[in-house]
Write a structure and sequence with these properties.
This protein is mostly helical. It starts with a helix and ends with a helix. It is built from 22 helices and no strands. The chain has one domain.
Length: about 725
């Protein structure tokens, strides 16, 4: 059975090699004029400086958590247990590596996209360079995630014999704890990258827009705007490094939750005198890894097809081809893998493991995840693309002022929640019907199985946005900016689709992790349930439902604080440095970069630490059932809030671009309608790029931390001590 791990390492190796090939290919391209090279260098320096400082903070947090985990697991197992802590560090390293590489390639690719547009005046050729840059991030996400999982399996599972029959059947949880901690390590980096990068990019973006566009009436990314370099730096640290580590964390979380749940189901069945055979348990543990390995290879093929085929003038269609072809190949390849692993097992075995329609049960669940991901992406596209009515309505509302722009955007965001939730609900029910709780976990795995293709398409967006900024600041021909603007507009939609994948998979993964959490502290073989007539569970659900709002409010406030300083600085420079607006004096870009960096590094700490500490403190105060309610409330609330903020923000952004494209007669750049649309876009910026992406990480961090400490919650909590004293 261990031979199946060869497929995992082969897929990982292929992805990382192809990523390196594309990285080198991008580096070999010419940067263009001296001015273009100068601007790109400034963006690169700013991005490197920020992520270096951010990673230093992460290193301190990681060191503290590693020590705490070593103590927790040593108490839990009665001897020194170092394995989960080391796996936690491995997860941190893999996620940090993916984010770093993605940020580096984005800062190299942006100027080369601009130069390709300058030289060729061809949108198809320009798209290929942007997608090639994005593919490095996408392939690194899948490659590093699987590499880390392979290491955990080889060293800890096989090398230390933690997945032996004796270890698993005897009820030892060390390997599942190793997986949980590996996933948590990925989540920690994702949380800091998303929050820190999100605060950075939106502070700069809002400062640049509010003063530059609406007050000075200068174009977006105009070199006269002091905040424009900081804005472009933010695209790389937030929308690339943050995005990459975010979806890597989602990817690992989905796989880990499926494997952990398989072990939990096995232990429960053993306690009920209907033990799952060890070889079947191993197949259930390996199947998620095999399925995503197939998906990674499919992503490589989907990306390669678009990069090597003849370019077209329809970037949206080309990007969809990459995603859809990867999804289709994943489904076909997944069926073959499913048959080879389960096709010859008996019907009695299938009944025992809740494969209710035979050997294809887990494949159907995973395929439903793939399909639901594509459908949720299509729904996001409908609500955020300016090719469709919802976003166009926002643009037309802008003719009446910013108040109606905001009102209409709120309506679009709220309405957009319903249909993705229906898709998630149907997928949850059907997946459970065909394959039990393991089916729900496999739905999450399926949704993210072709994550490398999704991230590649998503990352292409901020690269194109940066390319447009460099084109504007370098004063290239208007035709160049038209090409980059069209690519950027499509990128806003692909970003919304990527966020849909992330929050959809997070809901499935959080549900399966929560079930594993219940298994962790309840007696083996007992009926799993959370009774909402229990006041502890109800209180936990109510507080958990409010937590995402507290978390989101803290993030928006953090962005507003940093943006306020940016606005003041841009106004000061316009006021005190003569000749800026006439183009006779050079703005002070460095100060604006420092404001965004300091604001992000200062404000990101409390929300990030809150996500880790809240379930821990709650568990040790009120016990595991309170935490169970907390997880349910937070998950339900966060899913809807994340969809709302992501789609509303994307719609506001593209509503502005619809006006800028000249689609509304008499209303273009500089018009009152455009000013109103800029205000709407500014309101939506922290929602779609800071709040929304952070919420899916929040619920998975809470679920994983709760799972890790579940046994201790059940033994040591203040509420039980008080109640026992009162007896």
């Amino acid at each position: 059975m261990e031979a199946l791990l060869i497929l995992v390492i082969v897929a990982s190796f292929l992805a990382l090699v192809y990523a390196a090939f594309n990285f080198i290919g991008i580096k070999k391209l010419d940067e263009g004029t001296d001015r273009m090279s100068e601007i790109a260098s400034a963006i690169r320096v700013g991005a490197n400086a920020f992520i270096t400082y951010e990673y230093k903070i992460i290193a301190i947090v990681v060191a503290i958590i590693t020590v705490v985990f070593a103590i927790i697991f040593s108490i839990q197992y009665g001897n020194f247990s170092w394995e989960p802590s080391v796996c936690f560090v491995i997860g941190v390293v893999m996620s940090a590596a993916a984010g770093w590489v993605g940020m580096k390639i984005a800062t190299y690719a942006n100027v080369r996209v601009s130069n390709t547009a300058r030289l060729t005046k061809d949108i198809g050729s320009t798209l290929k360079i942007a997608l090639k840059g994005g593919s490095v991030m996408g392939l690194c996400v899948g490659g590093f995630a699987l590499l880390g999982l392979f290491i955990v399996y080889i060293i800890f599972g096989i090398g230390l014999n933690l997945i032996s029959e004796e270890a698993l059947i005897a009820g030892q949880h060390v390997f599942t704890q190793c997986l949980s901690c590996y996933a948590l390590g990925c989540s920690i980096v994702a949380m800091f990258n998303r929050i820190g990068g999100g605060i950075y990019t939106k502070a700069a973006d809002m400062g640049a827009d509010l003063v530059g566009k609406t007050e000075a009436h200068i174009p977006e990314d105009d070199p006269r705007n002091p905040a424009t370099i900081a804005d472009n730096v933010g695209d790389n640290v937030g929308d690339v490094a943050g995005l990459g580590s975010d979806l890597l964390e989602s990817f690992v979380g989905a796989i880990s939750s499926a494997i952990i749940l398989a072990v939990s189901l096995s232990l429960s069945s053993a306690a009920s005198d209907a033990s799952i055979p060890y070889d079947i348990l191993l197949k259930m543990m390996y199947f998620p890894l095999v399925f995503v390995s197939v998906g990674l290879v499919a992503s490589i093929l989907g990306i390669a097809y678009v990069l090597f085929k003849k370019g077209s003038d329809n970037p949206h269609r080309d990007l969809n081809i990459s995603t859809w072809s990867a999804a289709f190949i994943t489904i076909i390849g997944g069926f073959v893998a499913n048959y080879l692993m389960f096709g010859k097992e008996s019907s009695e075995i299938f009944k025992l493991i809740n494969f209710n329609i035979g050997y294809i049960s887990p494949w159907i669940a995973a395929s439903l995840g793939v399909v639901s991901g594509v459908v949720i992406g299509a729904i996001a596209e409908y609500y955020t693309s300016y090719d469709y009515k919802p976003t166009q309505m926002i643009s037309h509302a802008s003719k009446e002022g910013s108040a109606l722009t905001i009102t209409q955007g709120l309506a679009v965001g709220m309405k957009s929640c319903m249909y993705p939730l229906i898709v998630l609900g149907i997928t949850t029910y059907v997946s459970y019907a065909v394959s039990g709780m393991f089916g729900i976990a496999m739905a999450a795995v399926g949704m993210l199985s072709f994550v490398s293709a999704t991230v590649s398409v998503d990352t292409y967006g901020p690269i194109s946005d940066n390319a447009g900024g460099i084109a504007e600041m370098s004063e290239l021909e208007p035709e160049v900016r038209e090409i980059t603007d069209k690519l950027d507009s499509v990128g806003n939609t692909t970003a919304a689709i990527g966020k849909g994948f992330a929050i959809g998979s997070a809901s499935f993964a959080a549900l399966s992790l929560m079930v594993s959490f219940l298994y962790a502290f309840q007696p083996a073989g007992s009926k799993l349930e959370l009774n909402f007539t229990d006041p502890k569970i109800l209180a936990g659900a109510l507080i958990g439902g409010a937590l995402p709002y507290l978390f989101s409010g803290m993030l928006i406030e953090a962005v507003a604080k940093a943006a306020r300083k940016m606005v003041e600085e841009v106004r000061r420079q316009f006021r005190e440095i003569p000749g800026i607006l006439e183009g006779k004096a050079k703005p002070d870009y460095k100060t604006c970069i420092e404001i965004s960096s300091q604001g992000a590094l200062k404000e990101m700490k409390v929300p990030a630490v809150l996500a880790i500490l809240f379930p821990l403190v709650s568990g040790f105060l009120f016990g595991p059932y309170f935490v169970g309610g907390l997880l349910i409330g937070a998950t339900l609330s966060a899913i809807m809030l994340a969809i709302f903020t992501g789609n509303a923000g994307g719609a506001w952004d593209n509503g502005k671009k619809y006006i800028e494209s000249g689609a509304i007669e008499g209303q273009g750049k500089g018009s009152p309608a455009h000013d109103a649309a800029v205000v709407g876009d500014t309101v939506g910026d922290p929602l779609k790029d800071t709040v929304g992406p952070s919420l899916d990480i929040l619920i998975k961090i809470m679920s994983t931390v709760s799972l890790v400490a579940a046994v201790l919650f059940s033994k040591y909590n203040l509420l039980d001590v008080i109640l026992n004293m009162m007896k």
